[in-house]
Amino acid sequence: MTDPWDTLVRSRELLSDSGQLLVWVPNVSHFSVVVKQIKGRWTYTDQGLLDRTHLRFFTPATIRQAVELAGFTCIAERSLLRGPRWPYSWAIRAFGGKASHLSVFQQVLLALPRT
Question: Contact 82/42 with Cβ under 8 angstroms?
């Protein structure tokens, strides 16, 4: 999508008050992307987090914010995890839970229109 923020607003306008919105997005702050950035790389791929068809990128916090700003209330949220293996697993543990977003591969939100 060129403008996912506008798409969210338009979705709100199209849904009835009892409608539901399901959003499923990759997490650009996943450790595998962060490691590539640290190494000075941002290489698009044929699939996955940096799929070359992706035009916009979100973290768990920024997609939640976009959904709420579009007039929805998040009622359920699920993080699909894919943690790092050695040699990077120690780095996430070192943050003591303060960097849990690094293990989130995809974020799923269920939201209701705010009335």
Answer: no
